Amino acid sequence: MMSATLSSPHARQAMGELAPHVDGPAIVDAVATGARVTVDWADGSRGHFPLLWLRDHCACSACRHPLTRERLFVPLSDIDEAPTVTVDDGVLRLVWNDGHESRFDPVWLFQRRLEESRDSSIDPLPARRPWAAGFRPVRIAHRDFLQTHGEHAWLEALLRDGLVLLDDGPIADEEVSRLAGRIGPLRATNFGARFDVRSKPNPNNAAYTAIGLALHTDLPNWRQPPDIQLLYCLQNEAEGGESTFADGFAVAEVLRESDPEAFRLLAETPIDFRFQDEEHDIAIRAPVIQLDAAGRPLEIRFNNWIRDTLHLPLERIDAWYGAYRRFWQRLHDPRHQLEFALQPGEMVAFDNRRVLHGRKAFDPSTGQRHLQGTYLDLDLLESRLRVLSR
Ligand SMILES: O=C(O)CCC(=O)C(=O)O
Ligand SMILES: [Fe+2]
Ligand SMILES: [Zn+2]
């Protein structure tokens, strides 16, 4: 399937259809200067647009499919000859040397003006914010989540903080699936699309026992572990069973600061993760802290149950264990941990590739504890927030 490459709702709209209520300065002047067109707006701003960029972003029905709005034009050749440039009624009109005509809305162009050494993305998504000391998660009431403003606030907090709470929900089987289904299809894994967390007679996973769970991320043995985990509490009467969380990115930065060599080892050493039961054997080799191209944490894989045999050159084994221990200790340091007991009707949602989760042991002889869980893809959360932001 072709994918739409545009990141803003306005980008979907061809020049001619652009909604007239979108405010912004008018174009007062435009001239072709060498390999660029320079545009001046009424508020004094100026933008420079390379010819091929303008040709590539033509929104006419030959260059973008009139129904899907996906790009049809392919930028394979350079454009050496400047177009004829006019400003008609505030609209930039270019006629290329082959006679093709492109029209650009002033606000669309203003929002996308290019600057030297700066990416001019206009995505409305919030930046990630590391947990500071005393971090308390945002809480959204279930009834508000069912309204646009509440869902918007829930999504924003989840993308920014990596964790958000919903409260005052019904004690209803499958409510977690109904809430998740508003955002997108549930991400299925070897544990199903929706799973029940309670102590089971024949568990294939530590979560399905009553033991305490140290901080971990789910399914780091998958090439693409689930992005977002939702846990909805239906019953929590047993003694113990409090939930624990830590911001893996923030704690990785603490480790980088205090112990750069440990950080480097965890970031640069791929290790094996593997889950096996009767039907599955799912394994991957990846580092505990994966960094992006700029050296910032991109993903944490941390799950001691399914860490497989450590295959490293002999001389690096002890150093790796030392680094792992130091990261473990910092993650479990009470200063970096969030702890609370989920109440029936509450749901916690968190970024499983950033935030680690765990729980205290509980005593099943003192009462029932039952959570229902599922996973979602981050792409669909981001999509939902963009749609709600239109
Ligand atoms: O029991 C809990 O609170 C969490 C269980 C768990 O780690 C999971 O379902 O992934
Ligand atoms: Fe888990
Ligand atoms: Zn065109």
From TrEMBL:
Pfam hit, one: TauD
Domain TauD/TfdA-like, residue spans: 143-375
Cofactor: Fe(2+)
InterPro entries in alphabetical order: AlphaKG_dependent_hydroxylases (IPR050411), GBBH-like_N (IPR010376), GBBH-like_N_sf (IPR038492), TauD-like_sf (IPR042098), TauD/TfdA-like (IPR003819)
Keywords: Dioxygenase, Iron, Metal-binding, Oxidoreductase
Molecular function terms from GO: dioxygenase activity
Stretches assigned to the Gamma-butyrobetaine hydroxylase-like N-terminal domain: 34-105
Keyword ATP-binding tagged: no
Record family assignment: Belongs to the gamma-BBH/TMLD family.
Name of the featured protein: TauD/TfdA family dioxygenase
Source taxonomy: Bacteria, Pseudomonadati, Pseudomonadota, Gammaproteobacteria, Oceanospirillales
